[in-house]
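Mods, move this if it's the wrong board.
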Amino acid sequence: MRKLTATLCLTIAVLLGSIGVSWSGDFQKGLTAYRTGDYATALRDWKPLAKQGHAKSQYNLGVMYRDGQGVTQDYKTAVEWFRLAAKQEFARAQFNLGGMYDNGQGVPQNYKTSVKWYRLAAKQGLAVAQFSLGQIYRQGKGVPQNHKTAVKWYRLAAEQGNARAQGNLGVHYALGKGVLNDYVRAYMWGNIAATNGNKRSVKLQNFAAKRMTPAQIVEAKKLARECIRKKYKGC
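Not the wrong board. Structure tokens:
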């Protein structure tokens, strides 16, 4: 989970959304500076906005303090900014705050609180948060282990194109955990995940293929193509 958080949560909020005109210019200036590595300017532009309650600026400051970008790395300050944005229902901030509790960064490690924030982000449709909840329910970390619930969250993330969730959903079909054992579906999701860059899913395909007939492999490949055409919905 730590690697997932470190890898996927570096994303800075780039969509301006429905922010006021007076905020838009300064936020964009900060974003342009951030993209060029001018963290001091980004910090100068975003901090006043964050203090005025601008959620995206609060989130971005959280990222900067967490990663030590233009400031001394400070997990506690990162948590403070993430929390302010999370309370405004900013999904990425909710997810990152969950990650801080998950990893014990700036706050005592607390899996239950981590799940709370992941769930709020996941309910807003954030795929990486949905995937993380799938992981948590699969592992039983902070919640009772529940493979059916893990499959539910993996599926939601998979339908958004999350390759890791697609691969893990395939694994559940291969092992018959949380769903009925189905090697055709396992191979299908493994194929889709591999197409989307999840190289580990090749092993899943090989595992399933050894237990399938040639006709079933043909069927699984056909289903994978159809699923991709449907943008992963209803697969």
